[in-house]
Amino acid sequence: MKKNIINLFSLCLTIIFTLSACSDDFLEEKKNYDNVSEDIYNNYTGCNARVNDIYSWCLPDVNGAPSWKYNSTGTNDDQAKSTEEYSGFGAFVNPESPLAVLSGTSVPDFFQGTANNIQASAWGRIRNINDVIRGIEGGSLSQENKNKLLGQVYFFRAWCYYNLVKWYGGVPIITEVQEPTESSYVPRSSAKACVDFMITDLNKSAEMLSAETTNGGWRSGDDWGRVTSGTALALKGRVLLMWASPLFNRANDETRWQNAYTEMKKDLTTINACGYNLYSTSSNVNGSDFAGMFTKYSQNPEAVFVSQYNTVSAGNGQRNNSWERNIRPKNTTGSGKNASAMLIDMFPMADGKRPASCDTYTKLQASDSTYNASYPFMARDPRFYRTFAFPGVRWAYKGDPIPANPNNPSYDGGINYVLWNYVWYTDKNDQGNPESGNSYGADNLLANKSGVYVRKRSDDLDVNNSPLYGGFDATNSNGGFAYSAAPYIELRYAEVLLNFAEVACGAGHMDEAVEQIKKVRARAGYTSDNNYGLQQDLTTDPATCMSAVLYERQIEFAYEGKRFDDLRRWMLFDGGATAVTGAPSSWTLTGWGGNTCAWLGFKALNGQRRENFEFRVADSYGIGGTTFESDPLVKAGVTRCTPVDYRKADLKSQLETLKSWYETHLVRNLKKGDGRDSNHNDEYITFYPRYYFLGLSQGALNNNLKIQQTIGWEDSNNGGSAGTFDPFAE
Questions:
Q1: How crowded is residue 584: how many other Cβ atoms within 10 Å of its Cβ?
Q2: CA dihedral angle for residue 453, residue 455, residue 459, residue 462, rounded to 10 degrees
Q3: Strands 105-106, 99-100: parallel, antiparallel or unpaired by DSSP?
Q4: CA 499 – CA 240 distance, rounded (Å)
Q5: Calpha distance 595→599 (Å, rounded)
């Protein structure tokens, strides 16, 4: 399995390098560089080591909780739990714990990290990058080699700034290595200046890497996974889209959309020249290509910006991906993630349209197919089956779970595993009680069950017959999937297309926007026979077209850490209609009719709640006990139906069989999702308007005494007075 992953660290100018790679063949040996002199920059190996160091500091990490260091990657973190994907109030939507600077629940710090620790600081990253830029530019390498290295470094500087600017608007722009003195203070720049700075760095990155990467990617396959010209221009597209979106573009300045459209259309040629495209095969069955892209380790055309992992079991080179262990059921040695009913119920039907019962995206045509919430798996978008797992479906893997617990079902060592996660109750009084905790799951899941599992990005044996998790060991405390080399794709080619679709729509080119959606849907399994499941009038109305783009993004990128940023960009918690205390008139949303939700036909998330559900044994079978043998269906001698097998083309008939079995034996049951107060009254999503631009935490303010606080937030450096920094001011 892949062993050579970047795992480097540095401490200012004293650097200890573990020279390894983004892909499997970079550098295998380990070297130490102590007390580094400027001479290192006259040597390609030394310079490359410093660049590898930046990868180790800056690459997204699927295992890390969102912070200054890591972005959201689809786990049930505070950001994802502030979307439709998971229930349970994340920090940004909890009505009982408003975020603040000086009291109550502290606002998260995405600005600084740990002060005075270069490795644990957002600005330590940037200092390290600036140090490498200075060193390589001043060194004696050939210009060709300098470009090859610096192109990667400029990309990561822009990446660091993107993750700051999307939260705070304007931040200090620092381009030189600063000494830790008071005179080194740099004030916050405007959001526009920061955007211009990122675009400059990304254009420079793309130009520098052009000779090396625009002929199908890096010349050496050993370098696969490094950033390319295409990676830089794809991130540039994300930045331009952010700048044109309502969060930053309150008056709907059409020139921003047009500029983004022009640039992204031009840049697509280069992105494609780097070898990027939608991942597809000649054997796409029931969305298998959509599933398969997440487990293709190298030379994956979909992976525009990717973090790679390995199966090293211990030591400094260990870099394992925990996603598979986190989503697999407990009886396979995983832990499981529970999908919210809200997202399940709003997924498109098989004809590509929203369910008629879905009360959002109302400008989009409703499906002619009846959605029966009791059988949510019937006639859905092909991606539904690769995103969720429910009772009665195969979810094959390779490994024996018995050593972890002798009561776990083997299913031939996982290769024929079927998820049977229905539940029963031990007390009749609990039946139908959404707050009851006394339900137990079949097949030894018991108390460790989920109603509907998140299945997205799974290393499914039926899709990938060479699993990327190595040495399945059910006796390991981390579980059988502990050592996984599954990559994490931060920026996919599908996003490149949908980013372009969004700016094309914003610039009035609805026909081009629709063409991009069609490309994405074709990979999912839709065809031209029904216009790829799209209604015919998308090219005539901007609001309807934009709704289609945003709906497609929500489905295509579910559980990939993208939804919260989209909700913020479009201000979909309240439509942007609520003013921030102390904000100037430039903050007022005047475009999109003053309310993005109303303009889109989208039901604002504020004031809603997300519930969960489970499939419960029908009441006619009575209650059970607390052991796997006490399953009422087992005790009644019920034979389970043939499981749904996505390898088979006859999915519709298989689902009909499953539905028939459900009709007799299982009932959909409401389970509490979001919180209730002490009196068991429902509580609802509450996202305050000032959260669209976060304030600096007290710790960040204390360590930056001259820095301005964002409008709408308390300034601890000025006695708690209102913040004065306006990210829109130029």
A1: 11
A2: 100
A3: parallel
A4: 9
A5: 6
